[in-house]
Amino acid sequence: MRYRRPIRAGALLGLAVLLAACAPAQTDSAESGADSMEGTLRVWLFSEVDQEPKEKVVDEAVAEFEAAHEDVTVEVQYIPVDSRAERFQGAFNDPSSAPDVAEYGNTDLAGYVEAGGFADISDELAEWKPYDRISDDVAATARVDGGTYGVPWFLGVRALFYRTDVFADLGIDTPQTLDEVVEAGRTVREEKPDMLGLSSGGAYTYGFLPFVWAHGGDIAEKKQGSYTAAVDSPESKAGLELYSQVLSEDVCPPQTCAQMTGNESVQNFIAGKAAMTIGGNFNLNAVDASEVAEDTAVIPLPGTEPGSVAPAFAGGNNLGVLAGTDHRTLSVEFTQLLAGKKYQQRMYEAMGNLPTLGDVQSDAAAADEEIGPFVETLESGTRFVPVTGAWAAIDAEGVLPTMVQRVSSGDASVDAAAAEAADSLDESFGGE
């Protein structure tokens, strides 16, 4: 699974933000009866480091849409990702400043829905045939409490990157299970003490969670409409125990790895300091541009049994319709156009964004073998964080990283750290 062609840009992995107190809901166009079929359709999309390819694709979609709607002008504004919380908060407070259609990170959605910011477009999507080609796992990233508040536009999932030259030199076979991943890292560390066996940090939530999910555990369970912590279940603790072996002197020493984030974990691999890392499709171009590119292969992160794949976090961005739009029909139509097959394909070619439509994923995997492990990971089933406004606070407070770090540092046993994290989660869920 070696990759040679650069892939430009990376998927936004739904960075959690803490919204201020819930803003007043916009006036829903369905209630006001406003649904104009002419005028200006305002669209917010996220700005990118390398934005020109994205703009070209969007401009093409805008031209097609305007040609099909004689009295409509589409006005696209690119907003910074880092200031999106303030921008959306302002839009929810003042509908006159709000867009009609917006791109948003999927882990932000629950808070936006609680603020009354996005429209439920379930009925329209039920009649849109391409929507059936989005897996239920992925479609769930746009759902809150039975409503559907957008279309998943692109995804970011993670897989196992490893050094083929190091494995060949040490006679290590490609890992078939998570236990074998850890054992391979242990062998590397023993034979090459200047390298990290598996670069994956204590602050790398989405590197850690597949270990929990693969063992049948979870962050929380939803019962009777509310979440209850599940990180202290036997299955979750089995995943935590195995991950704690990664953050050990034998694989990735705590003094180096306990505080590492996902970006730092992958940077070690790119710099040639690690034999393995858990990286995303959005990291491919950085690895491809590095000195380790020719000696790198990618496989799905294996699960607990040979042939299985550890569930990955389905991070990504969605397109949604703002609740206060007075162009609801046009907004849904533009969302469907930009999220449809033609422009998902165009966006993949321009930006390397992993498509959400199954047939576009298959086409991408057939055309570019380097994307194959990520598509296989998607097809094996992905997972998501609790769909609740409380997640922003949980993420900001570092509940899960703290649990992992306490175990790796020896400050707490797996049982004690998991129990503490469960208490923190339940407190946050109870305060929704």
Automatic annotation (TrEMBL):
GO cellular component, one term: ATP-binding cassette (ABC) transporter complex, substrate-binding subunit-containing
Keyword annotations: Signal, Transport
GO biological process: maltodextrin transmembrane transport; maltose transport
Keyword match Transport: yes
Molecular function GO labels: maltose binding
Domain of life, per lineage: Bacteria
Pfam families: SBP_bac_1 (PF01547)
Matches recorded under InterPro entries: SBP (IPR006059)
Signal peptide, first to last residue: 1-25
Family (UniProt): Belongs to the bacterial solute-binding protein 1 family.
Name of this protein: ABC transporter substrate-binding protein
Originating organism: Streptomonospora alba
